[in-house]
User: Fold these one by one.
Assistant:
Number 1:
Amino acid sequence: MTAAIYALIAGVAMGALIQRVRASSPSMIAANLRLENLSVIKFMATTIAVGAILAYLASAVLGKDAMHFEIKPTYVVGVLLGGLVFGVGFGLGGYCPGTCVVGAGEGRKDALVALLGGVVGALVFTLVFSSVIAPINKLMDYGKLTLDQVLGLPAVGVALGLGAIFLGIVYMLPTVVKKN
Amino acid sequence: MAQSATQAPPASSVAAGSSGVPAWAKFGVIFGVVGALSILTWGPIGVSGTYPRFIGAIMRRLAPDMAHANPYLEKMGSLIKPETFLLLGLLIGGFLAAKLTGDKAAAAEYPHAGEKTTARRYRDAFIGGFLIVFGARIAGGCTSGHIISGIMQLSVSGLIFAGGVFATGILTAKLLQKGGN
């Protein structure tokens, strides 16, 4: 069960980081989605850039088999539809499935309510999956598709390029766009 | 901390850390290291799959026949997975960070202009919670699994999901601000 211990440690770190950048604050999330304050978006982009560079450098040095990559399939219609539904909930509630758990740990009551909404959402999803969702997710399914495959370039190069682009954008963007 | 509906959170707490490096940059780098180490040691971080696995664990106790006849619950498998411990960690991490820094989170914030009562906030939080998990399960991942871990692994699905999330997320937040006044 060493994997569980690593996951627990990663979770504690992730929870603390989310709390520190106030990503578990619905007001902060709403301000980011209104594009008035970009701090959480810049936090996420920095995370992705640093993670991509380190993971693919490690993979280049240690070999792909030493890593635990897990690529999610690109079934275009379902992934996009899911994102659109998710965005409405994210904008309305100001929480995502992880930040409401962090918020609950902080003692936010609306985070607990969002968590409960998520559990009910999972229950309903479970009941309608076979009849409604599964057929949608068969549409335009390209399987486990990665950018380096699309571009026909080495993964470590693409990771370095993507990381540089993300960090460049983050560096250029202002953090506070509109003061209230 | 009581905030009025139209007020954005104070920028000072996130604009710059005590070292002069902005909090988002410092903590973003640390989170990137945590994400890469997770891929090295056990797997990419991801949260939303634990919700249906939790439903499965309950249903297998209360209505085992129904649980075993459900193809999605069978596919998602047991709750005894590293991801469940990740969620437990999120709860502990949020609690500890707030305790150690003396941050007192409001029981409920009111992020939108038109959201002035607690009942309205709880309604929005509940519907929001429902939609994020439902949407994430359609797509097969959420902010952590698809956007952070997904794009970190160069997956195309993560980029498509992120595009969808920010399209309706920005629209919803802007409409709620306008509609509320």
Number 2:
Amino acid sequence: MTRDEIFATLSEYLQEMFEVPAESVTLEAKLFEDLDLDSIDAVDLVVRLQDLTGKKIKPEAFKTVRTVSDVVDRVHDLLTE
Amino acid sequence: MRHRLDLIWRAFGTGLFLAIIGVGGSLLAMTVFPLVAVLTRDPDRRRRRIQYVLHMSFKLYCRAIHLLKVADVRVVGRERLTDLRGTMIVANHPSLLDVVMIMAAVPNVQCVVKGGLWKNPFFRLTVEGAGYIRNDVAPEALMQACIDTLKAGNNLIVFPEGTRTVRGRAMKLHRGFANIAILAEADLRLIDITCEPPLLHKGNPWWKVPATRTEFLMEVGERLDIRQFLGYRYRSLSARKLVGVIEAHYAEKFGHGRVGTGSEAVDRLGAEARGFGA
């Protein structure tokens, strides 16, 4: 998957799981402040991304995630590992 | 003169009743609760007994505040709170008396309390004996403890704002409580509390009592059937729906806390000036 594809999939997830308006999902958007996710949502999102990548995601790897682009980077790293 | 005496009496009474909570709580923790613990080995029965003593003590406490005219304490719809089972009691949190009023009205109820209480052996006996949930564990463990207690049929008080309500500001609710209710499949009972004129609110010392006697009013509102929120594909959506319904309830009930306050008047005047009817 390319970064663009990952972004598109992630954007879809954010919309259907957390009712985030499509136009709010930008690479710079902060998950907690701008998109109104909370820590419980973050766990749900990680689980969903595990299904997508087929890889186990360590919670620590997601501790420092702040923005949409951080998530795209992490998923990209996982897929190219 | 009479008014001045009333002010002094209420300031004194407010301090007195604050002291009673501290001293009385410690006394119960050192006498009655250890006795209950020794006499009741079965943890379930011990929990019920400790909760019952707290319930009766708080009831007496509220009645004393009312009878001594330190403040008026009124409950509307108390009968809706007897016979609760496995219900999440959701309340706004304008004052220090909120949890006391709820516990005075519900005989079997638990809450989340400061983990620091576990450091003192007597308080530990009380809060652990009553089955209260400590707040200083990992978030997942805290959620699980709340889910478990609801599933076991206990009632749980939550204040979804996570802190005391600030007047004149729209209530912003956390979603943790909604996720707990959904995972536990627990019905909710809404409680609206007002404390007018404000007393013991954040940033105001206890001796600064308002010009007229405060009324603590607790209204027991509707029951929310959790099943209406369970049909969504993701729990995160269910939680958002539930929070939305409760936020709408409080917004309607309190007009974002601005009804009858200066800021509401400013809003109204502004709207009228812009050509909108009131």
